[in-house]
Amino acid sequence: MKGVVIKSTGSWYTVLLNGKTIVDCRIKGLFRIKEIKSTNPIAVGDWVDFEIEEDGRGVIHSIDERKNYIIRKSINLSKQSHIIAANMDQALLIVTLAMPRTSTGFIDRFLLTAEAYHIPVSIIFNKIDLFEEDDVMKDVDDFISVYERIGYKCYKVSAIDNRSCDLLMSLTKDKTTLFSGHSGVGKSTLINRMDANLDLKVGAISEAHSKGKHTTTFAEMHQLSYGGYIIDTPGIKELGLVDMEKEEISAYFPEMRAIRHQCKFNNCLHLNEPKCAVIAAVEKGDIAASRYNSYLGIMNGEELIAPL
Ligand SMILES: Nc1nc2c(ncn2[C@@H]2O[C@H](COP(=O)(O)OP(=O)(O)OP(=O)(O)O)[C@@H](O)[C@H]2O)c(=O)[nH]1
Ligand SMILES: [Mg+2]
Ligand SMILES: [Zn+2]
Q1: What separation in Å is there between the alpha carbon of 141 and the centre of ligand 3?
Q2: Which of 72, 77, 8 is nearest to 38 (CA)?
Q3: Distance CA 23, CA 3 (A)
Q4: Phi/psi of residue 221, nearest 5 degrees
């Protein structure tokens, strides 16, 4: 039998069969997935072959090749990787510029990871009801102009607004969508609003970010009553990057990818080389300074921890 993993909690996997039946499964034998060293061999979104045993529980024998996946590399000493989810059509990065504030550094690292794994991303600026009348809204608009200019769709939403809800439903209908972002930005709240049949646990605003408490603790995939799947994830606090060659990093910044062949040297790293088209574009303001700063931070191997 074949099904899709909708939840994994340590050694047990919840598998959805035919979009209807839930089977608790464990893994048989050892899984070795080429080139990925991760703490979890099977992730939410993986398609698996399994057999049901006499006690009604399943045993997973094999896993289908992944269309894509997104990995979080922990930045502690163990350097372990964790596959957040597999086989997505898109990711929605949920961002708030206050309560809690998401930094450009975090957004840019997430976008880089998604570019590297070929996952289309749109950026959702949530909680705009809180900023309607203050300076944060100008911040939101500045962020939006930076990201729209380089090809990312951006939307302003609020969980208490019906039109936002309709918009999110139309973006997610009939697709498999990953919801990602810091803890407390409102991922679970938005999902609950999009589909009244879902009742995900939501954190109190003060607890969610002042104590760094994660309300959602495991990634979990939910079937949407209007068609499609949504993957709710625990807030990402740290986003270490998967190993990449220094030369390839600018290829995952779309605005750098577009002009990097114009640099004088074809192995240009856009740091301080002469006649570098990227540096010239930053100086002219064609590339946002915040994006170039993120690029420099990544090139320097800086890790990033969210302010929680
Ligand atoms: N004012 C306002 N509050 C919101 C909005 N969206 C979410 N919240 C509040 O933000 C808090 C955190 O929401 P959650 O949905 O638990 O956040 P989360 O992103 O799922 O957090 P984790 O599960 O910890 O990753 C809750 O108190 C929500 O009520 C919004 O649009 N406006
Ligand atoms: Mg949550
Ligand atoms: Zn260059």
Answers
A1: 29
A2: 72
A3: 9
A4: -100, 135
- Among residues 139, 94, 116, 104, the alpha carbon closest in space to that of 289 is found at 104
Whether the model clears a pTM of 0.85, i.e. scores above it, the answer is yes
Which residue's alpha carbon is nearest to atom 2 within ligand 1? 127
> CA-to-CA distance for 185 and 182, rounded, in angstroms?
6
Report the distance separating Cα 74 and Cα 85, nearest Å.
15
Atom of ligand 1 nearest to the CA of 185: 19
Structural domains for the chain: 2-63 (2.40.50.140), 69-232 (3.40.50.300), 246-299 (1.10.40.50)
Q: CA 140, CA 155: separation in Å to the nearest integer? A: 10
Q: What is the pLDDT of residues 241-287, one digit of tens each?
A: 666 789 999 999 999 999 999 999 999 999 999 999 999 999 999 99
